[in-house]
Specification:
Number of strands: 19
Number of helices: 12
Mean pLDDT: 89
Helix content: 25-40%
Distance between the termini: 37 Å
Low-confidence stretches: none
Structural class: alpha/beta
Amino acid sequence: MENYVNDYVNFCVKDEVLRRTQHTCYVPRELSVRKYKNAVIYPFCGERRGEVVSSEGIALSTDFPHTVSISDYPKEGVILKRKKAVVIGVFSVLGWGHCFTDHFNKLWYFTTDEFKKLQQNNNVDIVVVTITGKIPGYMYTLFEYAGFDLHQAKIVTEPTEYEEVLIPDNCYYQIDDGWYRYYTDEYVSLLENMKARARSEATSHGNFIAPERIYITRTQGAFSSAYRDVGEEVIEKEFRKLGYTIIAPEKHSVAEQIWMMMNVKDIVAADGSGCHATTFCNPGTKLTILMKADFLVMHQVTANQIAKANVTYVSVHHSIFVSKTAPWHGPFFLCITKNLERYVGHKIPHIPYFLRISFMMYCIRELYTRTLRKSNFMDQLVRKTFGFKIS
């Protein structure tokens, strides 16, 4: 069972951290497959989300099936296919950590004998909808490691009606309680498949690195260039001094990343999708999660439980522009805090956060999003001129 230390979080969020981390995410649930006649699969189009809509007008692609107005969806140009389709999912977020939290939900079904028998009649499509109309290369690898060849899937780019659409239950899901995520035994089996594959790759490769103490950084990838996560470099510097190996996940293969998680003894990472791979850690791993705002990422709470890690949360932010209603969107400003100093056990020499250049950039970003970004022309001009990738 995972253990928590919450002594280093801001007082205003301490009760919430305690409450949410005590919630049990595992559910011993029997999964099934729902079948719908003459359902239509719609790709993303402008502001319209990709969706699977039954003939009765029920939207089926999320954890919360709900009634929609069929008149809101186009009737012309719908391709008719006299065959069955099994839906892998509708992928609206293509980030690394979200792949095995948001997109493995239905994958369990594709490893069952029932699906293999269905596939034998050669009259079934395996379908997926993505926000870009494409699938990133690493997702093919992650799915392969979990036990399914994603190349078998057809990406739906035009509205398509199938004679029958099969929607497997989710083995990792959310219910209408606002926050919590839940998982079943089938989800854990997929993760075990991935660990077995990483173990095999490491054995054949022979020289995968496996540091005992790791700091996962976000300063070298897209989050840094987007100015969504700002200021982390001073925290990274401190943990480097403490002897941690700095790891930028995007510079390592899928197998290397999983292998590192399987062998690390002590890991530090900012809360968010980059930290979700800690679900592959061994029981008892020391996991320090740096809070970028006064809220918990519930995907990470689930990962903590699956790994049975010893978890400490530490508040390391002055994220004054974070939305109260959607804090996960940021932007985040990370800095040296008294909580961090108490955690490491000594004073950390540092410039006050409000005098740092990174805090000025954090404020400029907010000013930009409230003004120039409202003009599409100016937004594109700024992005092109300065190379910004602001999300």
